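Would you kindly consider the sequence and fold I have copied below?
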Amino acid sequence: MEQQESHTAPEPEAVGAPVSEDRQTVAGSGRTVISDSAVAKVAGIAARAVPGVYSLGSAPSRALGAIRDAVGSQDHAAGVRAEVGETQVAVDINLVAVYGYPLHDVANQVRAAVYHAVESLVGLEVIEVNVEINDVYVAPPVKAGTKGALSEREPLQ
């Protein structure tokens, strides 16, 4: 009688790309890697959807964003930093709020939107969402004779 040779699957680290700081999950017959930038993009899209958020990012990143907008490109992760661990993630968001919206309410709504989006779309537990409101957008006054004119940039909603 012949002996059957037993084969075991190699460790996930031995197959494919080298291990990085990205999120890795070993399941069944493969591995899923979710990068910090993918989580940041999901968080950025969720934050931009909150009423009262004018834009994301600090002054330099908003300047780069204006250049990207001019050429028809967008960076959904601008102003967002995600730190992804094995099963958890922490997110930092810098934003500009629209004048007239209560700032604590905007921050709380952004936090709730990011928690929901990351946990439901990415599948990671969000341990914290830090929101920094670094500026307030004040719409320019409407000039006489330009009834209902739009400002040079409308708030994100």
Notes: The first strand starts at residue 23 and ends at 27. The chain has three helices and six strands. The CA atoms of residues 52 and 105 lie 9 Å apart.
